[in-house]
Amino acid sequence: MSYDVVVIGAGPGGYVCAIKAAQLGLKTALIEKRDTYGGTCVNVGCIPSKALLHATEMLLEAEHSFDALGIEISKPKVNLKKLMAHRVNTVEQNTKGLVFLMKKNKIDTFQGTGQVLAAGKVSVTGEDGKAQEIETKNIVIATGSDIAGIPGVDVAFDEKVIVSSTGALEFDKVPGHLVVVGGGVIGLELGSVWARLGSRVTVVEYLDTILGGMDGEVAKQFQRILAKQGMDFKLSAKVTGVKKTGKGASVTFEPVKGGDAETIEADAVLVATGRKPYTDGLGLENAGVELDERGRVKVDGHLKTNVPGIYAIGDVVVGPMLAHKAEEEGVAVAEMLAGQAGHVNYDVIPGVVYTSPEVASVGKTEEELKKAGVDYKAGKFPFTANGRARAMLQTEGFVKVLADKATDRVLGVHIVGFGAGEMIHEAAVLMEFGGSSEDLARTCHAHPTMSEAVKEAALATFSKPIHM
User: What is the CATH number for 420?
Assistant: First the structure.
């Protein structure tokens, strides 16, 4: 059987690409080695972690906010087994939904390991070891990423004591002391889950800031907020060893700029130092597909590899390893294969840290603008001055808007605060249309809402805020 397009990998990029291709009339097949669709995101990443984050945020509210709101309850108790059942159920609902979408869009699916034999030829090897060949006009590589480990350090993951993000979703008891290696999004999200459930959490980070790459002012205030919640931070610390011990595990690190090494004993260690593109066993070398120095599939501005008819999207190519970035690339490739003008605007891809409070960002940071020599202006507005935030006891954080000094075009927006991940999208829409801070500030916002802080920050950028 021959296809117009075969997609290898059913993560957010792959399954979205397949759906869009089928919607555009292309005969489409999807290959996935897991028993379920959705890739890392749906099965062991974005979705299950958000289930735990939401549940523990509710616990935090009950423990610290209810009394101030006049709601009197006995001390809440955590049933970890039920909490984990909620996570499992959430994942199952999403994966079953994807099965429905494959059938609805008449996409042929193959379970097994996909391999690129050459342009126009793919093989699928099932669990029984038997392989079958598929002919196709186009191939889309959407195999995602895998845990990266710690550079230069041998880490023996057992997913019980020394865990990756996958194991950190499945602890059968709350660790007394959890050490998180890596102060990025994954480490902070999962660290905050277990901190709310009672763990003492220590974050060890190589850089001198958490959330490397995000706006510096945002990162500093966010670290102070997390420290108030009980999380401890060891920054500018190079991890040199992670080992199991009789009672748990130990993490050894030394100052990046030199100094004596230090060892921390823990009940469990989460290694969250990033991810690497997954290309193992794909046969890319034999097919002549080029990789870059970091093991990513090399693509041009249209997501084409050097081999005609072979494309790549998502975590396996350059760019932020975000599910929604992969989805946009999947849609773009499908549109191009159907003869349309697919496009991804990489300058307007929001990023969110789903902690409490959330952190959200789109566009350039102040550090990036300074480095590029861009003359810009900044406007800020704190949630302490927002009426809805006060009513909800959610006054931590602020909104920052960055705009070009000459044209007033918005170049970046950064938010720390309750619901930041939902508020960031009006900034993304504005930036897609090349809007200015004045455009945003003169757009009527409903009162009272948290989003009024976005309007006020925009006012502060080109004029003066009203409520501060």
Answer: 3.30.390.30
